[in-house]
Specification:
Mean pLDDT: 97
Bound molecules: pyridoxal-5'-phosphate
Distance between the termini: 21 Å
Shape: globular
Radius of gyration: 22 Å
Helix content: 25-40%
Largest sheet: 7 strands, mixed
Number of helices: 13
Strand content: 5-15%
Length: 397
């Protein structure tokens, strides 16, 4: 029960557009020459590719759409095994489930909270086809080790970068290591294209025509078209035999918002990094609260602020901490990522306790995700820190 006023809610918007950006957007709406598949999309794609230092970027309606297209191009069937962490957002696995492939759930590392490479190795089989490294909470996976495995076993790598735009592993941006990188601009991500949006990136020329043919109802120019209206305005292609195209377009005004926010992504990530560092430092005297370990060769995008509460020695658990923060201080936290094999959708499709991943279970049962956003005021940050200290102290008894 909330006995006080709600003071800090878990945010639905991670980064707001500034007033200046809103003005720029309204100008863009007035001067737009198209509302979809126009010049803003091209510009956003070019800027995004340049930012990552990758050859090709394709704007899409979501990161799930990007994963869908990557799955379609990867030619996945029911005999293939797809290695996905059990601790992630559903969309990391969904496109592969739709392909009727077997999802092999990989456990997480207890300190980094992301895919554990030993667990990954243990779960390889002759049927393994794709690895989906998810740079969760903004933290990159050790991609050179993933690539070593992928090269040795001839596997496709589809990076889920929904939570990690701008994150770096050994100085190189995530999304540029694998065959494909998939990004999200959903309203709850570090940068947004006004609610929904995504990007599929690749360095591989051979995927480009396929992506273009699958992204927007198969519409592609005729080759050697003599008149613009003959034989028709555009062709409808079958980019991959047996795969039918989607309508996964990203609108022009959304793309324009993406252009604006991409300009300050470094600043956005830096604010998030600084706020994380402040909280972690301020809570150093409470080792029972274990924050995500960030290896020294990684630059995180600090998408969220998760921690594990090890209250066992005080006979307390995570729920007591959430309850304290909520009822005493009006701070609403979140618990993240129900192990995927526990969801109805996965259970109804053959997944169950046999897919159990111990670290995933342990983390889910003990994790707490604090309210955190780019635009969080220093007062809110301080309030969170003060209340956390008081709550943790109280729980020590
Ligand atoms: C948000 C998210 C997605 C899906 O992104 P959408 O743009 O909403 O489709 C995929 N994977 C992870 C890890 C996410 O957090």
């Amino acid at each position: 029960m909330l006995s006080t006023q709600l003071k800090l809610d878990f945010p639905n918007i991670q980064t707001r557009l500034t007033d200046v950006e809103v003005d720029q957007l309204s100008k863009a709406i007035r001067s737009a020459t198209a509302l979809t598949m126009g010049p803003y999309l091209k510009e956003f794609e070019k800027n995004f590719a340049d930012y990552l230092n990758i050859k090709f970027a394709f704007g899409l309606s979501s990161c799930t759409a990007a994963l869908e297209i990557a799955a379609m191009i990867s030619n996945i069937g029911p005999n293939d095994e797809i290695l996905v962490p059990a601790h992630t957002f559903t969309a990391s696995a969904l496109p592969f489930l739709r392909k009727k492939a077997k999802i092999v759930f990989v456990d997480i590392h207890p300190e980094t909270f992301v895919m554990d490479l030993q667990s990954l190795k243990n779960k390889l089989s002759p049927r393994s086809k794709v690895i989906v490294p998810v740079h969760l909470y903004g933290l990159p996976i050790a991609m050179d080790e993933v690539l070593d495995i992928a090269t040795e076993k001839n596997l496709i790598v589809i990076e889920d970068c929904a939570q990690s735009p701008g994150a770096e592993y050994k100085g190189k941006k995530v999304g540029t290591f694998g065959d494909f990188g998939c990004f999200s601009f959903h309203g709850q991500k570090n940068i947004t294209t006004l609610g929904e949006g995504g990007m599929l990136v690749t360095n591989n020329d051979k995927y480009c025509e396929k992506i273009l043919g699958l992204r927007k109802i198969g519409a592609r120019p005729f080759i050697d078209q003599e008149q613009y209206w003959k034989p028709a305005m555009s062709n409808i292609v079958e980019a991959i035999p047996g795969e039918y195209p989607h309508n996964f377009g990203l609108g022009e005004i959304q793309a324009f918002a993406g252009i604006l926010l991409l300009k300050r992504i470094e600043q956005i990530n830096a604010i998030r990094r600084r706020n994380t560092e402040v909280i972690v430092k301020e809570l150093a005297d409470f080792p029972e609260l274990q924050f995500q370990k960030i290896p020294s060769n990684c630059l995180s995008a600090h998408h969220l602020l998760p921690a594990k509460y090890n209250g066992g020695k005080y006979n307390k658990n995570r729920d007591s901490l959430i309850e304290q923060l909520y009822s005493q201080f009006g701070i609403k936290c979140a618990v993240q990522y129900y192990p995927l094999y526990r969801y109805e959708l996965f259970k109804n499709n053959g997944y169950s306790e046999k897919d159990f991943c111990p670290n995933t279970e342990d983390f889910f049962n003990n994790m707490i995700s604090f309210p955190f956003s780019t635009d969080m005021s220093s007062e809110d940050l301080q309030y969170l820190i003060d209340c956390l200290k008081k709550s943790l102290q109280k729980l020590r008894g």
